[in-house]
From TrEMBL:
The gene is moaA. Residues 12-244 form the Radical SAM core domain. Keywords: 4Fe-4S, GTP-binding, Iron, Iron-sulfur, Lyase, Metal-binding, Molybdenum cofactor biosynthesis, Nucleotide-binding, S-adenosyl-L-methionine. Its cofactor is [4Fe-4S] cluster. InterPro entries: Aldolase_TIM, Elp3/MiaA/NifB-like_rSAM, MoaA-like, MoaA_NifB_PqqE_Fe-S-bd_CS, MoaA_twitch, MoCo_biosynth_MoaA/MoaC, rSAM, rSAM_sf. PROSITE patterns: MOAA_NIFB_PQQE, RADICAL_SAM. This is GTP 3',8-cyclase.
Amino acid sequence: MPQQNRKTVPDMDDFHPLYLRLSVTERCNLRCAYCRPQTGEKGMMRGSTLSDAEILGLLDLVGSALPIDKLRITGGDPLLRPRLPVLVKKIKRRFPSTLLVATTNGLLLGRQAEELRSAGLDSLNVSLDTLDPRVFARLCGIDGLQSVLQGLKSARRAGFGKIRINTVLLRSANGGTLHDLFRFAGNEDFELRLIELMPIGVAAEIFDQEFFSAGEALEMLSLRFGVPRSLGLSGTAERYLFPNGQVLGLIRTQSAPFCASCNRLRLDSRGWLYPCLHDYEGIDLFALWRSGRPEEAISEIRRAHGTPGVKRPIKDWTSRPMIRIGG
């Protein structure tokens, strides 16, 4: 009887494609009420401790373990990393078939949009929670709304065809003005994505009074713009098509968690890998890479990717600030 061939080392085809979120800095030029603490930031906001070469080495390691389908550059605000377009270009050369995207608060986008697009960045998500300058200043700690709006215009001129607006649902900041954001996004051909507040870090302190669900937001918009048709789930977002042809995305982090289907890993700016925002401890991937233990690192990466997140009760959520892990 012929002996069966058995694979002793898994092939890349044995693993689901990975969506990797890469934080390139902990620095941020906003102080949003749901993200950064007002005090106690000693030891944070240090900028990235990793060089371009070190980041590329870690990405090579992850790419050896899993097929990277999508790579999102985050922070802090990634545009604060010096010479970010140079790093983007290096990543795109290494991973030409990977969708390369970035999330930014948009304050510096006006200066960098053209360079980032030329470097190979495929698309952008820009965080924008309100169109009211006073509310923006109160929420973000800076009078920066016009800079964000200018950054969005620059991104469109630079040739970014796919631009999304990320809006965190906050009852006091945008609970009564979502229609303005929705109309703005439609007029500018941006896709609006509404994200439920997560009780992580300082957001846990305001969660009870500020949270309102994506379902409530959808109902609000339906009253003004008509009842939409569901387009189903795309990644983590439920997408809806409104009668005017505009698409809305809802990310129900609390009301309908998607942990079991999540395909994300997060690599922070120190080189630690996290399977989930809920995790208290990560994997020191940088230490494994620096000490020349690729087999152990690959095994850890694959194990992390194969372990779906388990939603913890709110009181058990990590106190680590969102900017440390990259959102």
